[in-house]
Design a protein that fits this description.
Blueprint: E1 2-6, H1 13-22, E2 26-31, E3 45-48, H2 55-61, E4 67-72, H3 78-88, E5 92-98, E6 112-113, H4 125-144, E7 148-152, E8 155-157, H5 173-180, E9 185-188, E10 194-195, E11 197-199, H6 200-208, E12 219-222, E13 229-230, H7 231-242, E14 248-251, H8 253-259, H9 262-271, E15 276-277, H10 280-285, H11 295-307, H12 317-333
Parallel strand pairs: 1-2, 1-4, 2-3, 4-5, 5-7, 6-15, 7-12, 8-11, 9-14
Antiparallel strand pairs: 10-13
Helix pairs in contact: 1-6, 2-3, 3-4, 7-11, 8-9
């Protein structure tokens, strides 16, 4: 099976690249070939191109190429989708769009999320763009049989990421350093909302199991763990893995968003809501899908990855300053007894 990953060296896609090669797939990665945390794996063919350069440039790079499966890991806007339609129409058997589970209705009207849950997020432009991408692709599928499959990951992580609700995505060790250094750590709201964290290699099994399945065309799937935890449990397990006594400060998400607009999308439009995903659909299509890495194990794997190399433990000084300011402002409003 010939497979093209547009991207392929990111947090989630790297695990999928590794599994694709383990399964003997003929894998090509198309990206800018920049070095990062996850280099292109041995055995993958790499084509160098900037996908933002437009359809004409991509057609030149891919001249004469056809693929059984194309996965676009880095399409975020309808403009990206128009490019993909122009390039891959008639030259792939299945086009997989990586959307986002944050596109589901916020706040949810039912605690259990299925693929039929409405797509509606008034708080996060990122999610609304993903919804628009899905709408355009499904239109192309219905009108011209463009062979699309839509995937909606939730908060998926791997060795290089510790995905806490209030953290630094680019510098995730920042919160770990705070815990180890005895500095207070923010948990949004009362910490009782439910959340799901998915290990990237577990996600890969669900995704690759859909490759080449004609019944998956025109369908959408979320691929997430069945382990459901509160944010209090997620943070407490992180502290336990570190062997640290940590002071947690619970601050309302609305107050966090008032100080930092980023939280309007990432919290109010996502992580502040309780989400429990019904994974029965992906399990029907891919019976082998079973998330084996629970958070207690996954967070220890991530911490071990950071411990192995001091260069990985970069810190976000601006985020630290914002968090300290938020905690100080909150404590002025609610003095400690």
């Amino acid at each position: 099976m010939k497979v093209l990953f547009i991207g392929g060296t990111g947090l989630i896609s790297s695990a999928c690249s590794e599994l694709a090669l383990q399964r003997g797939l003929d894998l090509t990665l198309l990206n800018r070939a920049r070095s990062g945390k996850y280099p292109a794996p041995a055995g993958a063919r790499v084509l160098t191109a900037d996908v933002q350069a437009g359809a004409a440039g991509l057609r030149d790079v891919l001249k004469g190429e056809e693929f059984d499966v194309v996965v676009d890991w880095i399409a975020y806007t309808p403009e990206d989708i128009e490019r993909d339609l122009a390039v891959f129409g008639g030259r792939c058997g299945q086009f997989v769009f990586i959307s986002s589970a944050s596109a589901y209705q916020k706040p949810p009207r039912h605690y259990r999320i299925t693929e039929e849950t409405p797509l509606e997020n008034p708080y996060w432009q990122y999610s609304r763009d993903k919804i628009a991408c899905e709408t355009r692709l499904m239109e192309a599928y219905r009108q011209g049989a463009f062979p699309v499959t839509i995937i909606r990951p939730s908060l998926t992580y791997g060795p290089s990421q510790i995905p806490l609700a209030v953290g630094s995505w680019q510098h995730p060790y920042t919160v770990v350093e705070r815990m180890l250094g005895g500095r207070p750590v923010i948990i949004p709201g009362d910490g009782a909302s439910l959340w799901v964290l998915t290990w990237n290699a577990d996600f890969a099994i669900g995704l690759l199991g859909l490759f080449g399945n004609p019944a998956a065309l025109g369908e959408a799937f979320h691929i997430t763990s069945d382990e459901v935890l509160t944010w209090n449990q997620i943070y407490a397990e992180t502290a336990r893995a570190l062997g640290a006594e940590v002071e947690f400060v619970h601050i309302p998400s609305e107050l966090l968003a008032a100080y930092d607009d980023h939280f309007t999308g990432s919290l109010i439009g996502d992580k502040a809501n309780s989400v429990v995903f019904d994974n029965s659909k992906i399990k029907r299509f891919v019976p082998e899908f079973d998330c084996k890495v629970h958070w207690a194990e996954g967070v220890r794997r991530s911490l071990a990855w950071f411990a192995a190399d001091p260069a990985r433990r970069t810190l976000d000084s601006e985020a630290n300053q914002r968090w300290d300011a938020l905690i100080a402002a909150y404590r002025r409003s609610f003095p400690q007894k």
